[in-house]
Design a protein that fits this description.
By secondary structure, the protein is mostly helical. The chain has three domains: 7-54 and 75-131; 136-255, no CATH class; 267-487 and 508-590, no CATH class. The protein has 26 helices and four strands. The chain has a four-stranded mixed beta sheet with strand order 1-3-4-2, with helices on one face. Helix 24 (541-560) runs parallel beside helix 26. The longest helix is centred in the middle third of the chain and has 35 residues, at 215-249. The radius of gyration is 24 Å and the shape is globular. The relative contact order is 0.13. Bound molecules: zinc ion (2 copies).
Length: 591
């Protein structure tokens, strides 16, 4: 629900903010609809500007830099004001005769309604401002300003100086808010705020020195950096010395949010046609289907890779086959080169198979992940926000230079010859990057800023399967087996999230599920456990979106019969922007 700060679509899945246009495609409408739509357009465009005033950090992240000098003080007064504003926007919104709106505006209507209701719910009921100390972290906002390319270094530093002048008040409010937090979020807050300290470290002081600010400006900024570091340090110490010992002694709040909150968060975040429980049930069925398919493929491959060995019974044979195939990987020093070389091949495949029209004017730049972004995900796509559409799109790949030989080997096995291609499909073509280019051209700024994560991740997962269906990887059983392993991860993410937060699954049971039934390495499974203890619902977005897209395609296929055209399906689907799949479905079935 908090859609600010991150502009990065990670394979690990951060919340992304999408870009898009502000033009409104005029469609054939009735006279009465015309006025309702015109009024609605004005309303929503004004509302977006009000959002930026309330959420200056979110504004910065989408490339709207007017409020860069302001830092939100997350105190009670701010939260009350936010709820009041959201309630009045909801009232204004619900005064529109939604049935008179164009399809695109109806979708915007529902997305806005959902967003505002979610914001109110988050403050009044979810109350994570109390129990999640990791919400408070000035690091990402500062890093974006220091590293952004939207303005000269001098101007960015001047604005930064104004913004961090609020840092003491910011962290005082944080200390005031945090009441009986979970151990997991407290530890995360300590870790991430230590990261924030390094953002405000010697590299920043050096850039201040190298800038053209006058001596007085430099002096003031350096003082404010020092004060901010003290405020962060003070927050870390408060968490370490006061909070952690107290919550460990008393009755600690669980990180599990339970059925009622989970169900609501699922509905707000995924905006799916399914309930949380339905997705959980479906994921369980899918898991068994995938296991059967993997066993069949393993049986087929066995004589080729283990000619002298009897195949063990059941899933252990699959695990052995996956381990064997994972040995095929690129050398560590050519990891980024390998990715760079694959992009044109993917482009070409999409063109020759007529899968969708690509825009050659929007290049994707493959680069080593900048230092300040490293440590989050192996690969990610950085997209410009709706107000900086002409900025470049980057495919960030973490270089393996800082890994020990053992770490690098394990990483390269994970991203082996097969899965590296699937990763590139997911992140780049025709996954996130391609969807982004389409979304950029979609007519709604609402869909751009409130981009539905399940649709975005669902599309990238769908793209993997669709490419293989079309013969990418020459239909080899090896490629399919490794794809199933990936898809199984997506499926287990959904099962795990629900099981842990709603059904009380233990750590031991979770590790068992991931390693025995998901063929994951122990280290990967432990990372996943950590992630499920600090996030909720996000892990279900991949499976939810993917399931809904596959269903929609089946539905349209059976409706159109022989006339079904895959390219048209893709282009039409993407043309609506990053809307929830259920609304895209409504629009596609009507047309
Ligand atoms: Zn993704
Ligand atoms: Zn190796």
């Amino acid at each position: 629900m908090k859609k600010y700060v991150s502009l990065v679509f990670c394979f690990l899945g951060l919340i992304g903010v999408f870009l898009g246009g502000c033009k409104n495609k005029s469609e054939t409408r009735q006279q009465a609809g015309e006025t309702e739509d015109t009024r609605f357009d004005t309303f929503k465009n004004n509302l977006v500007l009000k959002f930026w005033r309330i959420h200056p950090e979110w504004a910065s992240s989408v490339g709207y830099h007017r409020y860069d000098n302001i830092l939100t003080i997350p105190d009670n007064k701010y939260r009350r004001g936010l709820v009041r504003s959201y309630k009045s926007y909801l009232k204004e919104l619900e005064a529109f005769a939604q049935h008179k709106l164009s399809e695109n505006n109806q979708t915007d209507f529902y997305m806005l309604q959902n967003f505002l209701a979610a914001g109110i719910w988050q403050v009044d009921e979810f109350k994570d401002y109390k129990w999640n100390p990791a919400i408070y972290n000035i690091g990402p906002v500062v890093a974006d300003m220091v590293n952004g390319r939207y303005d000269s270094l001098d101007n960015r530093l001047r604005t930064l100086s104004q913004r961090i002048a609020y840092s003491t008040a910011y962290y005082e409010a944080a200390i005031d808010n945090v009441k009986n937090p979970t151990v997991e979020h407290t530890q995360l807050a300590i870790l991430q705020n230590k990261g924030a300290l390094s953002v405000l470290g010697s590299a920043l002081v050096d850039s201040v020195q190298a800038s053209h600010l006058n001596p007085a400006e430099k002096n003031l900024l350096n003082q404010r950096i020092e004060t901010t570091r003290l405020a962060i340090d003070n927050y870390i110490r408060h968490l370490q010395e006061n909070i952690l010992p107290a919550i460990k002694k008393g009755k600690t709040r669980s990180f599990r949010i339970g059925q009622s909150q989970y169900t609501q968060k699922f509905n707000f975040e995924n905006e799916s046609g399914y309930t949380a429980n339905e997705i959980y049930q479906r994921a369980n069925l899918e898991k068994h289907k995938i296991h059967r398919a993997m066993l069949a493929l393993t049986k087929q491959l066995w004589p080729k890779y283990f000619p002298k060995q009897a195949m063990p019974a059941g899933l252990p044979a699959v695990k052995q086959m996956i381990n064997r195939l994972s040995q095929q990987h690129v050398p560590r020093d050519s990891f980024i080169t390998a990715i760079r070389q694959q992009i044109p091949a993917l482009e070409k495949f999409v063109n020759t198979r007529h899968l969708l029209t690509q825009d050659p004017t929007q290049p994707l730049i493959v680069r080593a992940t900048p230092l300040y972004m490293q440590g989050v995900a192996g690969a990610s796509v950085s997209a410009p926000g709706p107000y900086e559409k002409n900025a470049a799109t980057y495919y960030n790949v973490t270089p393996l230079t800082h890994y020990t030989p053992a770490q690098a080997e394990s990483y390269l096995r994970e991203y082996n010859t097969y899965t590296l291609q699937i990763l590139n499909i997911h992140e780049a073509i025709p996954g996130h990057y391609t969807q982004l280019v389409y979304s950029n051209k979609s007519p709604s700024v609402i869909k751009a800023i409130l981009g539905n994560n399940a649709m975005i991740e669902g599309w990238a997962v769908y793209a993997e399967r669709m490419m293989l269906e079309q013969g990418y990887g020459r239909n080899s059983p090896e490629m399919w087996l490794m794809w199933y392993k990936w898809n199984l991860r997506v499926t287990l993410n959904a099962i795990l999230d629900y099981s842990v937060h709603v059904l009380n699954m233990s750590e031991e049971e979770a590790l068992q599920l991931l390693t025995q039934e998901g063929f994951q390495e122990e280290a990967e499974a432990r990372e996943k456990w950590k992630r499920v203890t600090i996030s909720q619902v996000q892990l279900t977005s991949y499976f939810t979106g993917y399931t809904e897209i596959m269903n929609l395609r089946d539905e349209l296929k059976s409706k159109a019969g022989k006339n079904f055209n895959l390219k048209n399906f893709h282009e039409k689907f993407l043309s609506y922007g990053s809307a929830p799949v259920r609304y895209i479905r409504d629009m596609m079935l009507e047309n």
